Structure formats: C-alpha cells, structure tokens
From TrEMBL:
<dbReference type="Pfam" id="PF02625">
    <property type="entry name" value="XdhC_CoxI"/>
</dbReference>
<dbReference type="InterPro" id="IPR052698">
    <property type="entry name" value="MoCofactor_Util/Proc"/>
</dbReference>
<protein>
    <recommendedName>
        <fullName>XshC-Cox1 family protein</fullName>
    </recommendedName>
</protein>
<dbReference type="Pfam" id="PF13478">
    <property type="entry name" value="XdhC_C"/>
</dbReference>
<dbReference type="InterPro" id="IPR027051">
    <property type="entry name" value="XdhC_Rossmann_dom"/>
</dbReference>
<dbReference type="InterPro" id="IPR003777">
    <property type="entry name" value="XdhC_CoxI"/>
</dbReference>
<feature type="domain" description="XdhC- CoxI">
    <location>
        <begin position="15"/>
        <end position="66"/>
    </location>
</feature>
<dbReference type="InterPro" id="IPR036291">
    <property type="entry name" value="NAD(P)-bd_dom_sf"/>
</dbReference>
<feature type="domain" description="XdhC Rossmann">
    <location>
        <begin position="171"/>
        <end position="313"/>
    </location>
</feature>
Length: 325
C-alpha cells in the first residue's frame, strides 16, 4: 500500500473525530489500464474537501459533483466508471480502462472511529487484517489476513468485498549521503513512507527532501526499537561502517523484506567477514543482505545508484527473480 493511502486514513480519522460525515471510496477492481490499483483510497467531506485519488482526476470530479447534488446518501454504493452505459455518467478514463468503486458513507460515531483506529493500526504494520464490507447494507468488520492473493476480492455470492489492509511500504535509510538523498526522492515518488536516520548534526543540516521523516538518531537504535514490519526495506548508503554495519546487525533481526548496503564486491566481502566475526551474524543472516546493493545497471552518479537501489527493492517487493528481468 502507498503512503498516500495511510495519509487518507489518518485524515479520515481526524475528520471523523471532528464530527464530519465522510465518504470513503475504494477502488474495487480495474479492467485494462488504470491510474490507481485496487485498494486505492479517497476520502471526501460533505463540503467537498478531500484527500487521496482513484483515477487522477476525472472520476474524482464526477464524484464531487454528484455528492454536492445529494447522491450517495446510502450506507454503501458501488459505481463503475469507464464503460458504456455504466453508472459513472459516461465518464471515459484517459487510459481507456474500467474502474469499479466502493463508496462507504461514514457517520461520525463511536463505531466508525473504532473501525478507523483499527484500520490505521493495521496500515502501520501492527496486525495483518482485511476489511470485509457488506455491499448491500455497508456493515463492516475485520478478518485475519494471510497476506496471500489479490489485495481486493469481491464475493459476488455473498455480496461482500474483502480488502487487504497491508502495511504501507516503508523505506528506512540508514545514514545521509548523496545517494541516500536521491534514494529518498525516488522512494517518495514511488509512494513509500520514507524515514531517514542519522545522528550526525552536520549531515542533518544539509538534508532536505519533502515528504521524508528525519530522525536524529543512530539507525541501529531506530531499527532495534521495533519500527520495521514486513513491508519495510532497509538500506545503508553511507560507506561508514560505524553506521552501515550496526544498521545491518539490527536489520537482520527484523521481518523487513529487503535489506541492503552499498559497497563494491571487495568491500562487501570484507563487510560480510566483519559481520560474521564481530557482529555475530550467521550465514543465513548474512545471506539476507543485498550487497552490493541494487541492480547492476553500470551506475556511476548518486542518482544512478539510487535508481538501481529502488529498482532492486521493487523487484523483490514484486517477487521477481533477477534472472527474469
């Protein structure tokens, strides 16, 4: 799940606590090309203020107009956009695809707020759950989720949608460097929640990337404190073993799906020996480390290296073996 969707649920909860009636929209299915994947979120207030995205513009505009005209008063509604004769008022998606949207009307009561609080905890990686929404009456509850299969499943026989609320993809960058800064910029654009940790004041002063959380502490301490879930990637990009090695020692104790550290083949072999000897890492733990980090793109500049790092993270996240590229 993208960081934007986490922000949507945070804002939904905040507005609900302020007493606002809200409409939470979820992409149920896409056919053909589509700007946003199933599970993507949009929240809208009665006055038209909104956050999130379903299509990149056209669907949102149509929805806001219809909401202002008094539609969507039912607890739950489903719409299809992009198909001839569909409910979406003849809207044609620029990509030529078809979009099914679930619209839930959320009243500002205790049940709604409790549901949103559990949902927020799930997106932060505290528990693996899926939302199950009755498409006839809007009743909703959580079920345990294995993390396997499509993100959204529609049970037409029972008239329900089940939406996996996986943790938002998180990137923890251990230490600031030119490569780390470029990597953070790429990751924000890809929808990752990005956290940069570095205790060095001189490095912190020169680091400015919009949308990135900066922690003035040792990356190893942040990682050891339990901030890394199964949707986390951890990368060390400083060439400083006092930062990189300690981060790797803690990273292998987490369920992070990707752990990598920058360096040449020679540096990586020396680091592996050092981590076994001084860090006490097992062969299995060392094998979890992507080093040298990234895809071999012949990268030279910081931006090129960062591109290879993020490409490799996406490869692993999508379950693609290197030899399939």
């Amino acid at each position: 799940m993208q960081h934007l969707d986490l922000r949507v649920i945070e804002q939904t909860l905040a507005w609900s606590r302020e007493g606002e009636t809200l409409w939470l929209c979820t992409v149920l299915a896409t056919y053909g090309s589509s700007p946003r994947a199933p599970g993507s979120l949009l929240v809208v207030r009665g006055d038209g203020r909104h956050l999130g995205s379903l299509s990149g513009g056209c669907v949102e505009d149509d929805f806001l107009v219809r909401l202002a005209n008094g539609e969507f008063s039912a607890p739950v509604t489903t719409l299809r956009y992009g198909a001839s004769g569909a409910d979406g008022a003849g809207i044609t998606l620029p990509c030529g695809g078809i979009l099914d949207v679930l619209i839930e009307r959320l009243t500002p009561d205790t049940d709604t707020r409790v549901h949103l609080e559990v949902l927020l905890d799930t997106l932060k990686g505290h528990q693996p759950l899926a939302r199950r929404v009755d498409l006839s009456n809007g009743d909703r509850h959580f079920v345990e989720d294995t993390g396997i299969g499509p993100r959204v499943m529609v049970d037409t026989e029972r008239g329900a949608a089940q939406i996996r609320m996986a943790p938002v993809a998180r990137l923890v960058i251990a230490g600031i460097s030119p490569v780390a800064e470029a990597c953070a910029q790429f990751a924000v654009g890809l929808g990752f929640e990005v956290i940069v940790c570095d205790p060095r004041e001189e490095e912190l002063r020169g680091f400015e990337v919009e949308g990135v959380q900066v922690r003035p502490e040792l990356p190893s301490a942040f990682i050891a404190a339990g901030h890394c879930h199964a949707a986390t990637a951890i990368v060390a990009l400083t060439h400083d073993p006092r930062i990189d090695d300690l981060a790797m020692i803690e990273a292998v104790r987490t369920p992070a799906f990707y752990i990598g550290v920058m360096g040449s083949m020679r540096t990586s072999r020396a680091r592996a020996d050092r981590l076994r000897r001084s860090g006490g890492l097992s062969e299995h733990e060392v094998a979890r480390l992507h080093m040298p980090i990234g895809l071999d793109l012949g990268s030279r500049t910081p931006a090129e290296i960062a591109l290879s790092v993020m490409a490799d993270i996406l490869r692993v996240q999508r379950g693609k073996p290197r030899d399939s590229l």
